[in-house]
Specification:
Growth Hormone, Chain: A; 14 helices; membrane; 2 domains; two-stranded antiparallel ribbon; Solute carrier family 40 member; mainly alpha; ion transport; 374 residues; single chain; 70% helix
């Protein structure tokens, strides 16, 4: 079921850009935005209908546990720690805040106690990456001379690769088991990301470590600037200073159908070499095999967590995923220039390697426990 739902998701990722692109091409961008708005409104009605149907089909969803007031729940959780009179004397807002903190702590404690804790944390670490088809990678691709039409084609190919990852998950699980499927997927994912690491040092890469040193002498900065200008003719000169904004004003940008070009960059300019950007997207596209690892961890969470704690653990897991995703945006804010992207790639690979290492530790413990049980 998980693999089927993920296949549907990947198919929509292929068809949706094609459909919207055709509407915008045949009509206009405004009509395309209206089409997206109408589609979402219709989808909302359909989703509400199916959720209501599931609610009616499964009677257990309508059975609620005995309801307790928030203050009563808080008192029950705190009565062992503080005297009752001391709790009731606290202001209501402070009691609610303490109850919220206690709930978060209890949720994290339940998450930490699970046998699949390391696998879940490993999946969360994979969210701290710039190696995906999001706004960060696409923005970097524009600075490297990739057109919007080619980028949309690459996104479609990436979705097809993700679709193949879901098919591979079902076959690997039947052949090698769930835990071994995660190990195989981890190794394949890391192997694909090696292409991204090679792209950082390949010809055409704009990486310039000197831009991370803000306090350098004027002579050395002029020399390094001359070297960077010769080596990075295909990147946009986003050099920030104390009296100069990091990003140029919106009026200095030409908005075209294919890409974004600055005034001082000719529209026909091309990078000295496309090897770096080719290796980068080759690694990003093939790394969409990651979906098989994601499905593995999702299946482990579903099979190894008791029903009474499943909602709490999944909530903590989602929180960790979003937290690590937020961290990767903070990384980009700290190093926003195209010359910094190679550093972000290396940091992303380190986070992903850490996440897969956590899964390897979980797999080792799971296999050892299985041998001891038998």
């Amino acid at each position: 079921m998980n693999a089927t739902m993920r296949r549907i998701d990947q198919v929509t990722n292929i068809l949706a850009p094609l459909a919207v692109g055709q509407v915008m091409t045949l009509a206009s961008n405004v009509v395309g935005c209206g089409f997206i708005l109408g589609w979402n409104l219709v989808s909302l009605i359909v989703e509400f209908f199916f959720l209501s149907r599931v609610y009616r089909i499964v009677p257990a969803l309508s059975i609620k546990p005995p309801a307790l007031e928030e203050d009563e729940v808080y008192l029950q959780s705190m009565e062992r720690r503080l005297p009752l009179k001391e709790i009731t004397d606290l202001p209501l807002c402070f009691r609610r805040f303490r109850w919220l903190v206690s709930t978060c702590k209890d949720g994290w404690r339940a998450y930490y106690r699970q046998p699949v804790f390391l696998a879940g944390m490993g999946l969360a670490f994979l969210y701290t990456t710039v190696l995906g088809f999001d706004c960060i990678t696409t923005g970097y691709a524009y600075t490297q001379g990739i057109s919007g039409s080619l980028l949309s084609l690459l996104m479609g190919v990436s979705a097809i690769t993700g679709l193949m990852g879901t098919v591979m998950f079902t076959r690997l699980r039947k052949t090698y088991g769930l835990v071994n499927t995660g190990i195989i997927s981890s190794c394949l994912h890391l192997g694909c990301l090696l292409l991204c690491v090679c792209s950082v040092f390949a010809p055409g890469s704009p990486m310039d470590l000197s831009l991370l040193m803000p306090y350098i002498t004027s002579n050395s900065s002029s020399e390094l600037g001359g070297m960077a200008s010769q080596r990075q003719k295909h990147t946009y000169p986003l050099r920030g200073g104390s009296n100069q904004p990091l990003l140029p004003d919106r009026s200095s940008i030409h908005w075209t159908n294919n890409t974004v070009l600055f005034d001082n960059v000719p529209s026909g300019s091309a990078p000295e070499s496309y090897i770096s950007i080719i290796l980068l997207f080759l690694g990003v596209i093939t790394a969409r095999i990651l979906w098989s690892f994601d499905l593995t961890v999702t299946q482990l969470l579903q099979e190894n967590i008791c029903e009474s704690e499943r909602g709490v653990v999944n909530g903590v897991q989602s929180s960790m995923n979003y937290l690590m995703d937020l961290l990767h945006f903070i990384m980009v804010i700290s190093a926003p220039q195209p010359q910094h992207f190679g550093i972000l790639v290396i940091i992303s690979v380190l986070f992903i390697t850490t996440g897969h290492t956590m899964y390897f530790l979980y797999a080792h413990k799971a296999k050892r426990k299985r041998r001891l049980d038998t």
